[in-house]
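Schema walk-through. Below, the input block comes first and the output block second. Nothing else is stored per chain. Lengths vary across the set, and this one has 126 residues.
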Amino acid sequence: MNIPAELKYTKDHEWVRVEGDVATVGVTDYAQSELGDIVYIEIETEGDTLDQEEVFGTVEAVKTVSDLFMPISGEVVEVNSSLADAPETVNSDAYGGGWMIKIKISDTTQLDELLSAEDYKAEVGA
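--- output ---
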């Protein structure tokens, strides 16, 4: 299981990469493997400002539909539009081409609440 050390994680199995005041968010390798083949991703929150833990979209796999939760508060400034035609990218490249949204961070102190790679490994029993 791939859990990159430079990323932050949530207990909801999202990863966060911070670059300046923008955070890129996706689902973890663990999450995509648990979901199975991802067939559809719906994110209609571009331009919206959402609070931490609010739902920003859904991911649909062959066996289930799961909500996607904001790891931190902020404005959704970009949605990965390539996932509309190729949602399976999340399965094959969860930490690269499978990113979901970019957030303009509104409260940097929330980053301290996220899990480190070591903490996330303990969370999922890796």
